[in-house]
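Possible race condition, two jobs.
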Amino acid sequence: MPPRKLMLHLKCCGIDKPPSAYSKLHPACCGYTNRIECKVENAYEQNCTSAIFNLINNTILGLDIVFPLLALIIYFAKDMASDLNAEIRKENAYTPNRLSMLK
């Protein structure tokens, strides 16, 4: 279930934000709210447990993409920084020491 549909499902139950993985949902989330059926399309397609599982699963899937991408960016940034540092050291090797010029 996409996150938007899951949020519609939870808003149907009177929950404004995604609950934590360990919080218990109100029994109304599994069917009716105050004996009035929620009219959101496919809102009660899944029960509470699977809705929370999907919410956690979608979050983890997002992290599975973000962290490796962030690791690649950090790796290439460190690689570029070490190359730049090597170039600076090479330039400094050819420049005479300024203190020796003052003597």
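Job #2 (started ~2 s after job #1):
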Amino acid sequence: MLPAHAEINDPGRDPQPSYQTTTRPSSYPSAYNSSRSTVLTGDSGYQDSLRPEAKAAASSHLTATPLNNSSLLTKDSSNNPNDLPRPINTDLGALSINGSAAATNAGHSSALTSPNSNLGLDRLQLNSPQQHSAAFVGSTVATALPTTTITTATSTTGTEPFIPHSMQSVEMVSADATLTERQQLDQQRQQLEQQKQQQYLLQQQQQQQQQQQQQQQQQQQAALQAQQQELLRQQQAQQQQQQQQQQQQQAARLAQLSQQHSQIQQQQPQPQQPQQQQVPEVRHVPQQTTARRKFNLNDFHIHRTLGTGSFGRVHLVQSRFNSRFYAMKVLKKSEVVRLKQVEHTNNEKMILERVEHPFLINLWGTFQDVRNLYMVMDYVVGGELFSVLRRSQRFPEHVARFYTCEVLLALEYLHSHAVIYRDLKPENLLLDSLGHIKITDFGFAKHVPQNITWTLCGTPDYLAPEIIQSKGYGKAVDWWSMGVLMFEMCAGFPPFFDEDHIKLYGKIMAGKVKYPAHFQPALKDLLKRLLTADLTKRYGNLKGGANDIKRHPWFEGVDWDLVYSRRIEAPYRPTIRGEGDTSNFDDYPEDAEQYGVYPDGEEDALGTYFPGF
């Protein structure tokens, strides 16, 4: 039974058409008409099923728009289903079917509508029960018509199908497969071009970023170089300013020394023969400021030996010009070079020429011959403090305090001139006729502007831990040695001692000190602050310097100005029988060598090692 109304499908909502290309067979099977819908064919079965008026309308008004410009195939009006279709010549316009009727498969229903029908249908629609699309059979291609359907419609008067008098053209939409492929290729090409464009833009951005980074690095390097140059310029300016200040200070010092020189000229040895007058070199005035003649062996008479060392000895000598007594230190050049003491010897002369202090030995002059070096110094008649300490076994604390005060002021003065003494011990402390000390033997002293050196030297019992460790050390080693000296003066023995030097160094590194019971608490406290391996806690090496030691309770009541001016009476005054008395010195065997008596023509092969003598 036909539906009550005709269904109109919107072409815009139709699915995308499908296309299929096949090869036309030589003949179609007999079941073709019963299995698939055939559109616009010449089968008469369709017309026979219509009413007469419908047949007339179908033959006179049924038109269709062809899909392409090819010839359409149609069947004859015969009833033989096996007959092959024959071509119908037509143009690209509307297709008019005359004398034939459209045929449908058995069981299919068809409806043709007209613009004038009461159904109001304006398009021809084709539907089959199996939803098959009508097909034009061409010479080589069968084209699907997804947008065209045939629906059934029921007339207003009955159930018989109503055939309209006219039909509009059937719109059939198709597309070529190659067009879709081209579109896809175009899309791919566009995508590739877009990718290339994006890659190009990305490369441009990366290049710009690299250029910016290079520019920034260049700017940073330029700024850093400018800062370094400015810093270097400032450092150079500071160095120049410091040099100018030092030059001014030296000029002022030289002026002061010149005044002192005029005052002490009468104390210098004077020659007995004016025509051969020789002025001894005066230690108080730097050598470069005054033109002076050197001493020689003919200026002195050698009496006896006062002490001996590894590569020389000290003699008591008397000037042939003023009959005053001096101590002459004689060093063998060959031994100095062999024992690698050239630098120490030159340092001793240089430092003694530059320093001047009430508690330091005075150097009057130096000279040399082809074998020996000679240094003329004050003769300190009281002998060594070591000898007094051995006779006394130990000092009371007030006696030890007196000598410690004078040693402290001498070390403070040396450190202010960037000099490290490095050999403090009782043997190197001499007593003058009034009992005040004079520090002698500057063989290990060194001028250290940077306050650091690495040489392993000194007396084993008095070595600081940092010297034993072969680390860089500075002025703090002298404050350690002063602590050892204080301990030995008060106890009669040093805090660390052993005949085996390796064991001795181990005890020093361990830092364990046993204090005698008679040590007062203030003395023990000061010794603990001096005999510490921690340089950040050692007194004298802190921010306060030597003042930290002076303010310690053990020195309570000490007037340091009186100490410096030597107006405090010494606790021990040596016995002196005359100016050239040597009773306070030990006896030593004399050397058989006669100084200055050498074979004729002997060359001075080592003189270049000691240019300042």
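The chain has a mean pLDDT of 75.
Logs attached separately.
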